[in-house]
Structures are given as C-alpha cells and as structure tokens.
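Following the same procedure, sequence and fold were stored together, as reproduced here.

>
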Amino acid sequence: MLFFIGAFPSIFVITERNEQVPPSGVPFLLTFIEIQMKNELLHFFVPEKGRRTKRQPISWLCCWAILLGIVCNACSDDDPVKKNPYLQVSTRALLKEVVEVKFNNIDGNTDITVDFGDGTVKEGKAANPITYAYTQSGDYTLHVTAGQYEVQKRIRIYNLLALTEAMKQFREPDNKKVWVMTHRAHTSDRTVPENSVSSVEDAIDSGAEVIECDTHVTSDGVVVVCHDQTINATTNGTGDITKMTYAELQKYNLKDRNGRVTDEKMPTLEEFLKAGRGRIYYNLDYSPRTATSQQVVDIVMKLDMMESVFFYCNSAQKAEEVLGITPKAHVYTWTGSHKPMMGLPGNYFVQYSYLTNGKSTPLGSSINDGMLATVNMLPASGSNVSEWTLNEGYLDELLQIYPMVCMIQTDLPDLLIPALQARGLR
C-alpha cells in the first residue's frame, strides 16, 4: 500500500492481521531519492540566477524512474517486500480463545519472544506459532521480538467466552442452563425490523445467547442479511436479491414486523456481525443460502469472529464443505446430517423441531453419537406455536420430549428466558 506525503512517497505494508517489517535498504534509498527530487524540483521550478530555464531535468527524471521501478517491483508477484519478515496475529479475540502469534518469512530457528501485555511472556522458535488464551477482557499491546526485529501490536479481548470453551458446559453433569437462540433476531417488540442492526441490540438486551440470521448475495457480490431471497416481505420494495446490486437494495427501507416502513436499510453480513461482535454469538442459517460457503467464511475470518459464529448446514455435504475451508468452524446441522463432525475435537449442536406439521422430530442417532440437542420452538404449518405469545404448556411438553435440550430457538427470547428461569434452567 502506498501513502503519499506531499509529493514524496514512502512505502509501508500494514494490514489488519499482518504487520510488515520494512526491508532495511529501501528506506535509505527512498530518502536519497527524495532529497535528489527535492533539489531537482527546486532547480526546475526556481532556477538560479543566470541558469537557463529550459534546462532539461535529467537527474530529476532519473530519480522518478528509479522510484517507479521500486514501486512497480513492490507490486509484482516477485515483490521483495512480501518476502520480508512480517507478524501475523489477530487484532480481536474472545476470552479463552487461542491467539496465535507467528513471524513469517524468517529462519525457523530464530528465537521469538512475545510479551502478551498482561504479564505473560512466552518464548519459542519462528518455525512454530506461539499461542496464548487471555482470561481477562481489555485492550493489550503485544511486544514481539524476533531476532533483530521488534514489533508491537494491539489486540482487543472481548468479555465473551470463546465458543470452544463455552460449549464445554453442556458436558458437565450438573449443567442446568438452556441457551436461547433468537430467530431472525426477533423479540416480542414488533416495532424492530427483523435481521436489522437495531434487532441485534434488541436481541442482546433480551439476554439471548445466540442470534440466528440468513445470508444472501447481491448480483455484485455483496453478502447481505435477509431471510427471503426477495425483498418483498421485509422492505418497501420488490425484487430478487440475487438479481439486484447492493446499491439498488439501498434504495429501499426495512419494514418493522407490523408492516411500517422504518429508516433502516438491509445490512450487509459484515455490518450485522460487527453490531454484536464480542457481545453475542451468531448462527448463520444454511451457511449460506445464495452466498457461497467461502464468501461467508471469509467475512467471518476477516472480522476475527470464528469463535463467535455457528455455521448452520442443512446437509452433511454442506457441513463437509465448510469444514473443508476450515476445520475450526463451529458447524451445526440438522439431525442426521452430523456424520462429518463425528471424531472431531469439540462439541457440536444438531437441530430438532418441536411440533412441525403437528409432530416433533425424533431424536434418532445424533444424541447417541455425542451431538448436543437444540430444538426449534417456532411457528410452523400444522402447529399452534405462536410468533407473538409464549405457550408455557408447549414449553413443558418440549422439555419432556427433549430432556437433554441445550438450546431452544424462539421468536420470543425475552419471554422464554424468564420461563426457563422459573423452571431452574437458566
């Protein structure tokens, strides 16, 4: 990346996740060229007394040519800057999330020392990442020494337990807590548009652990959050998301659940995730629908949110696809589609449904295979489950059918949570 200071460029390579160590020879060469350019520009535009103004600025042009060569080379596939040592580390993480610190493009035997900023110092070799899990939230500065290189990097630790750690509670024999997942970020407040940025705040305020949402992709490749593939039901416009550009989507406003038009726009997946980052978990339903798995995973990785997100997969094939991108993904499937997770380290949810078409999903083999049960308590054809009121009789029946339930998905988290508390399940 080039940053221009006045007319004279200097080169830095800095990204959110990687910090480039500048090559030792380049700054001196750039400084020399900059001085020469300043002198030549001065002579060219302000000629000395007695000097002809038509003098050709040969050395000035040479300086520009040299600089252009450096910049062009820096942008090529054989960029020497890319081959210099650089630090790779996340800038955000959750409590007890494993943070990896790695120096790339350096001799593997180089000694590495990492001061994590909380009193913890670890040493190792460049060949292997140095890992650490923070136990307290806050902003920290990492000080990393690798041979002759020294780099500092800021990292924010959110006050939310990483999913890998949080899911362990469901294996504890005395665990009594049932999590609540809010369907489309719904609560009993119908004035908040579903799957909107404001609905994220509403869901967090309700006390739910997880927000469920759906993803689609526009014709120009922007992943957005919406349940339907069309915008007909949720906005004051009409059209198929996959056939509209993101700019076209932004012409329309979201409607609340009473049908009134609001000031809110359909959010991108990135905006939706950022709105609750570090405060609540997300379940990306069908992971994805019209977006590709790679598109969705890339966004989650970019935001350093792999320990905050479930990838719901409606088939074993989709689960394999997501796990093929990253085996660290918290995949989450319909019951019977869980085979790709068997034998993997970690704990995984599978989903059942209460009273869909008048019936509840049989448990099948998922529980015997070590999966954790989540149950939908949602309106469906053939059932009287309401989106607007909580039927506690239905809740009691659900708990009887699925006594091992770990999480319930609902449109009414603010009503379900007190009902679970009254039953000793929070």
Remarks:
- The chain has three domains: 2-74, 86-160, 164-422.
- The CA atoms of residues 273 and 282 lie 8 Å apart.
